[in-house]
Specification:
The chain has three helices and 14 strands. By secondary structure, it is of the alpha+beta class.
């Protein structure tokens, strides 16, 4: 009888180990499928090629960006966003900039300070104060007193504005954190809402810079 019980126990141990192994394997397969789904349909990586977002983003950083975010809500002030460049910008690949103004906002830059809706922004992410003056007024974006030319910058015609001094509906104003070395809205105008493709939320690489991006 004792021998029989030992034999049964010997058979049971490998069977239990096999069941545990199958459980782990199933979990790994499910995790792999979930990761593949996320990478394919929800999350994308983005390589930083320029200094326009220093110090927040350094050349060579790899970001994770949420491709679902702007399908469920509009871009918000402070978002680090990926978008297709305006038609009049000299680029083919997506841009990454920070959203500074949303539809209905007033915006101006004076003496190196950005004012949104009359209040000075606290911008700990900024590399250096902008060396240009800027104001949204009279249905245009004025930089150092001169309006951006709608033939070379994305500034909608006056009938598309709801107010002469507020960002029109469907448009956003973006800047690089490295203000004086950034090709952004102070050069080529607004970004249309349809152009936004993802919201960056994490620096993935290099590992010593791994952290969540904050507004």
């Amino acid at each position: 009888m004792g021998i029989a019980r030992l034999a049964l126990a010997a058979d049971f141990v490998p069977a239990r180990q096999a069941a545990v192994a199958r459980g782990y394997l199933d979990a790994l397969i499910v995790a792999g499928l979930v990761a593949l789904f996320l990478i394919t349909f929800v999350i994308r990586t983005f390589f930083i090629p320029s200094v326009s977002m220093v110090p927040t983003l350094q050349v060579g950083d790899v970001l994770l960006a949420d491709e679902i975010a702007y399908r469920v809500h509009a871009p918000a002030d402070g978002d680090v966003s990926l978008f297709t460049p305006p038609l009049k910008a000299a680029a083919r690949e997506d841009y990454v900039k920070r959203v500074i103004g949303v539809p209905g906002d007033t915006l101006r830059i004076s003496n190196g300070v950005v004012y949104r809706n009359g209040a000075a922004l606290r911008e700990p992410y900024e590399n250096q104060p902008p060396r240009y003056e800027l104001a949204i007024r009279r249905y245009g974006i004025y930089v150092d007193g001169t309006p951006l030319d709608s033939r070379v910058a994305d500034v909608p015609p006056a009938p598309a504005w709801q107010s002469p001094d507020r960002i029109p509906n469907g448009f956003y104003f973006v800047l690089g954190d490295n203000r004086n070395y950034s090709d952004d809205s102070h050069v080529w105008g607004f970004v249309h809402s349809n152009a936004f493709v993802a919201r960056a939320f994490l620096i993935l690489w290099p590992l010593d810079r791994l952290h969540v991006l904050e507004r």
